[in-house]
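Example record

One chain of 243 residues, shown exactly as stored in the release files.
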Amino acid sequence: MSQPMKDVGIPLTVEAMTDQLVNKPTEDEVVKPGETLVLDSFRVRPDQLVSFIHDLTVAKKGEGPLNYRLRTVVSKSSSDGLEEIKGDILPLDYRRHPRGTWPGSTIQSTFPEYRVGAPTKSYMISNGVTDNLMSKEDSTIPELTQANIGHFGAVYRVRIPVKKTTPGTEVVEVQLNPRGGNYSGVLKTRAGTFVIPLTNPMKESILIYRQTVSQGETVLEFDLMHAGGSSTPLAISVETMDK
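Predicted structure tokens for this chain:
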């Protein structure tokens, strides 16, 4: 794939953010201790880049704690049973950006209140400092994890309270600007779901809201999923426009 963000990242993110993941109807499978169930499989051609998301529910049948593992395995032969591959996990190759497993995949973030008329405020997300929520230490298996500081694969749910203390109306803009490198993603607002095309850092920005606000409090909300990026963080700016 010559453009992984365009060819893989964006289509996958669009399906996840618009509830269009393919439904694979199955019976309720009971997996006994020591057994392995293959959830999905597909062929990978030479020099092909693939990516996938699975949304599933695992529940305990009977009493006792729930204990299970999800594994991704590869076989060079189509005759090999994938469920029979149970050897040791391959050592981490940090050059390949391995990730880990965390308790949740939705990030809830409420920004500080913005007062209409105040100077532009800019908040940084997915920078590994102010919102380092998917750290190596917080993963389920720290020794087999590299931090996911960019929150790839997660839905970032942003809430911005805007307060106007004077009569009349003003226009407030909310923009997204990549700071670390080329970026793409999917944005969901009250107006719908939108693809963010490949965006150059520091030169281009994405308009999220141009909102007319009256006296009182207005809450601007949106969801964001990163489709890919040469680097994060991202800046989210709130600004009162000149009349």
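Notes: The two ends are 47 Å apart (CA to CA).
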